[in-house]
Amino acid sequence: MNMIEAKEITYKYPDGTKALHGVNFNVEKGKIVALLGPNGAGKSTLFLHFNGIIEPSSGQINIANEPLKYSKSALHKARQKVGIVFQNPDDQLFAPTVREDVAFGPMNMGLSGKEVDDRVSNSLEKVGMGGFEDKAPHHLSGGQKKRVAIAGILAMEPQIMVLDEPTSGLDPKGASQILKLLYDLNKEGMTIIISTHDVDMVPIYADKIYIISSGEIIKEGKPHIVFGDVKTIRNANLRLPRIAHLMEILKKEDKLLFSEEYPLTIGEARRSLLEYIDGVKEDK
Amino acid sequence: MFENTVDNYAHHNNLKGANIYFKVLFAILTMFMSLISTSPIIPIIIAVLMSFLIIFKAKIPWKFYLKFLTIPFIFGFLTFIFMAFFFGFGTPLWELNIFSLTVTIDGFNLGFLVFSRIMGGFTCMAFLSLTTPMTELFSVLETFKIPKIVLEIAMMMYRYIFVFLGEGINMYHAQQTRLGYHSFKSSYKSMGILASNLFIRTWIKGENAYLAMESRCYNGSLHINNYQNKIGTKNLFILFSFEALLLAGVYLSGNFTLI
User: Fold this and answer.
1) Best mutation target, B164, B207, B215, to test chain A (most A CBs within 10 A)
2) What was the pLDDT predicted at B51?
3) Residues B241 and B187 in one domain
4) A51 and A75 together in one domain
5) Are residues B16 and B106 both part of a single domain?
6) CB B256 within 8 A of CB B47
7) Do B124 and B176 fall into the same domain?
8) What total of structural domains would you count in chain A?
9) Residue B57 contacts A where some CB pair is shorter than 8 Å
10) A17: containing domain
11) B-chain residue closest to A107, CA distance
């Protein structure tokens, strides 16, 4: 089932410039989908369509096979299904304490006090921020703020989580903690959409990749298919994952013969190298 | 970035867990005692006691506390001097032979009383502000029936003050790096740019925050949850006996004066 389906979305800014141009975007239930694109390609603008913050100039958004309507009550429901974690946690964390911030969404859903408390402590526990309830957001580090921002969305128990550059500005450990968290959430059945420039991480977790450039989707498919099209990747101001780049050089410059597809992750690279070495040994 | 601020100490001190109503009651009652006292003795006792509580009980570093105390102290001291010179009639205590300025006994006593009340009252406020995070005070204000809209605005202001302080400091450093403050003229110019830029950023941040809130089903009102420890009868008993003791002290010290 498609959890989110964007059909021919076009969005014009009030001054007439097109931010998105006929974008088609499908996300199946239980998948992790990555949206790759250079700065200013329209990633954030597209995301804001998913819960009706922005209404497209033309085109349609379907959430769980139902077309999104822009009445107040319909948006209220849609926003419970689709949670967006914003790029800058300072934009999202507005309440004076962590607890109040995480409780904000569930409170707006009209849940009872006890239910809200449970959800707050559960979601903080999940992101590894249990015990920080009474802290003020400005006393947290960047990675901690990000995790609290994610908890704030988790507490609403959405079916789809949309994260705008979840790892930007974090140290490597913080970034991998966030990715691990998303991976775990996905295993529990959450559908996840991520925008990023981090091409090295994308092949590890993403089931499907979209590449957006100047407001248009220029490539979509499984990681191997998308990264197989090196020319498109480079035209979109992106690059291959480091591993794939190394394999590309080994193949082209040093004439090492690997199987057809470039390995994208360390695990895959290791396998093809071992295969290659075995092959060489047998030849001798 | 905000390690040495009142806010940081309010969040990290040994009395943070104590019931907020208890702390507010204690600070306000004690301040009241300091204000009704007609002799400087009780306010000075209060100032010393409060400072003791702040430094040894709440474990606020004394260096920071003394710095915190300097401004009200200077203010109080100036008040003392001016009152000594310009208030009161009667027996002169000391004559300054310029412009026939004299310090009268009456004026001296009045000035000293005001000074001690300032210090007594201020240490009470210091106790409250150094041991209680702003965030918890909001919930007290809610019980006092302060209109919700005022509280909501105050809560968001409190949160974003720190965002902008951080932003402002970053911009200031960026300007310093490019020699923005090397002369008097450039300082003026840089400061102007910083202020106007901060204004524009406020606008953008406000817009972004609103989008983020809308994504979480914001419908125009915030909800405040209140979690507190129990005060306990023992503590209440101690509080009221302490205040009664102070009241007795106020009564007994009467119109006692230094001179």
Assistant:
1) B215
2) 92
3) no
4) yes
5) yes
6) no
7) no
8) 2
9) no
10) 2-87+159-239
11) B223
Range of the domain at B98: 6-132+230-253
- pLDDT beneath 50: ranges in chain A: none
Structure token pair of residue A260: 């057809």
Q: Does B2 touch chain A (CB under 8 A)?
A: yes
What distance in Å separates the CA atoms of residue A75 and residue A72, rounded to the nearest whole number? 5
**Counting Cβ atoms within 10 Å, is residue B40 exposed (0-12), middle (13-18) or buried (19+)?**
buried
Q: Does some domain include residue B188?
A: yes
**Residues contacting residue B211 through CB under 8 Å, at least 6 positions apart:** A48, A53, A86, A91
Q: B4 or A88: whose pLDDT is higher?
A: A88
Q: Which two tokens stand for residue A197?
A: 């420039």
Q: Strand A160-164 and strand A82-85: pairing? A: parallel
Partners of A134 in the beta sheet? none
Place of tokens 């992106």: A238
Average pLDDT over residues B75-79: 92
How far, in Å, CA of B149 to CA of A57, rounded? 35
CA distance B223 to chain A (A): 7
What distances in angstroms separate CA B96 from CA A152, A176, B80, B87, B88, one per listed residue? 68, 74, 16, 15, 16
CB contact at 8 A, B106 and B89: yes
Same domain for B163 and B49 = no
Instruction: Please name the residue of chain A whose CA is at the shortest distance from the CA of residue B2.
Output: A139
User: Does one domain contain both A244 and A233?
Assistant: no
Residues B143-152: contacts with CB within 8 Å, 24+ apart?
B143/B21, B143/B226, B148/B221, B151/B224, B152/B221, B152/B222
Taking the CA of residue A236 and the nearest CA in chain B, the distance in Å comes to 27
SS3 at position A8 = strand
pTM here? 0.77
Instruction: Please check whether residue A137 touches B, CB under 8 A.
Output: yes
- Which chain B residues touch A100 with a CB distance below 8 Å? 135, 224-225
Neighbours of B123 (CB within 10 A): 28
Under 8 Å between Cβ of B113 and B39: yes
Q: Is residue A117 part of a domain?
A: no
The token pair that represents B219 in the structure block: 């419908």
How many residues make up chain B in this entry?
Answer: 259
- Give the residues across from A121 on adjacent strands: none
ipTM: 0.75
Name, in order, each residue with C-beta under 8 angstroms of A187's C-beta and a sequence gap of 6 or more. none
Interface check B153 vs A, CB under 8 A: no
Q: In chain A, how long is the greatest CA-to-CA distance?
A: 73
**Residues B147-197: tens digit of each pLDDT:** 888 888 888 888 888 888 888 888 888 888 888 888 888 889 889 999 999
